[in-house]
Request: fold
Amino acid sequence: MLILHSLLNELKGEFSSSGKGKERGAWFLHTLLAIILPFTSSRTSNLLRAFRVLFGFADIDKKRYYTFMASPKIPWDRLWSRLWQMIPEPETNGRMIVALDDYINPKTGRKIFGCAKVFDHAAKQNQSQYPWAQNIVAIGLLKMVKGRWACLPLCQRYYLQEKEIKENKPTFKGKAIIFQSKHQQAVEMLGRVAVVFPQSNITVVTDSWFGNNGLWKPLRKELSGRVQMVSRLRANNNLFDLPVPPTGKSAGRPRKYGDRLGTTSSLALVNKDRAREITVNLYGRVRTVVAYEQVVMQKTLKCPIKVVWVYRRTQWVALFTTDLTLSVAEIIEYYGARWKIEAGFKELKRDIGSADTQSRNPVAVKNHLEFCMMATSLTWIYACRLKKTPKRRHAVKGREHYAFSDVRRLVAQAALDEDFQLLCPIPRKSVVNTFVTALMKMAA
Reply:
């Protein structure tokens, strides 16, 4: 309970000390708790019901709470900066490991902000490949939390296609939305994180869609040598040897690239016999994998990269990093931990319930997603500050680590404790002030 009070008290400090600010801060904190509690969905109507039934907000007005959920005055930038600073030991082996990916939120309403026909590469046979959905680009901090990898949501952006912006001309807070590519949005979000952590190096872990020069070039320009990348190569990428320095005087400038070695797939066949066994922490357990490493050049990234071919029984995968100091085990483990952002999307959409909202107001849509993401990160920060590792409630074959739902249950127990209201009191309307106000109105 004291851990939860400490976390909420730090966030509450970002609101003003005026009467309105105190009320807005109390509503903000209890909204986060209502989302984390595993009893109801995170729809606004259910959050209001939790306010009245679980927290005792007997005099809360429906219209005022809905106005608060659509308020443009919530200081999200300051709140996120404060939350990032609340993460205990955000670095792993001297670097911040940040996962980058995008996901979709299918919707049914035609006038919901950010919705369009979006291609779903993971659609099943009985699903549409172009559902009506929101496309969201997000980043999250990959961190070991009590013996298991977890992804703490850090930031998000709604991606709107350029043709949709030209045709529909959507607005947000009265201003026209300017088109940004997913790479530009990713660079902007990573730049915000870098400002809050000026002394930390950042390693971006992403899939092959983002892991190219479209992200690497502007990211390197923005953050210089503070940023590195871990990603996956495509089968048809051409790889080159390192340039050989000239031995004597020769005309022209030195070569930037050595001889062409071949494609990723052709080198995978050549290097298979040279691979060796390596022990890594992968997908929650210590495993033995067969891998081979080689430092090569790639013309798209225009820099030397370390490529690691990981061989399975019948398949292989080629990982690469721009950080030549990383070991093979670290490259494999970090890219394996990237899957936690996919698990984080599931926690965010299904467990927390960010996909359930049907709000039409653009600010309300954005606020709801910000609330859900901050509630998810706050839950993992709570797990970081626990002295003991949470116990898994529901046994699953092959899984020994605790789940996200186990931490939510612990937060619920702390939030519904009898003494919690003493630490986080609910703001009440003063009877004296109300009486004085009534007298003033009568006198007028």
